[in-house]
Write a structure and sequence with these properties.
Elements: H1 3-30, H2 32-43, H3 47-78
Helix pairs in contact: 1-3
Length: 79
């Protein structure tokens, strides 16, 4: 693989992951009561615990996206 191929790969990977993060965030914020009722029945959690779980999941996904897709893309662009 060439550097140009890797740069393109990580660029599109970052776009896809950031897009998914935005859709997931909008879904959680926009449909929180509906999603919370489903997850409460599935996992037996209270709404307060679910809000914390949603926040932790979004924070973890954002961090991993930045570390494993955006950072390599920027590093490859600097080469």
């Amino acid at each position: 693989m060439t550097i140009d191929t890797l740069t393109t790969f990580f660029g599109w990977l970052a776009v896809i992951n950031i897009g998914y993060l935005m859709v997931a965030t909008l879904g959680i914020v926009g449909m929180q009561s509906w999603m919370a009722s489903i997850h409460q029945r599935l996992f037996g959690l209270e709404e307060k615990e679910l809000k914390r779980a949603y926040f932790n999941w979004l924070a973890t996904y954002k961090t991993l996206t930045l570390i494993f897709t955006v950072a390599p893309y920027i590093a490859l662009k600097l080469i």
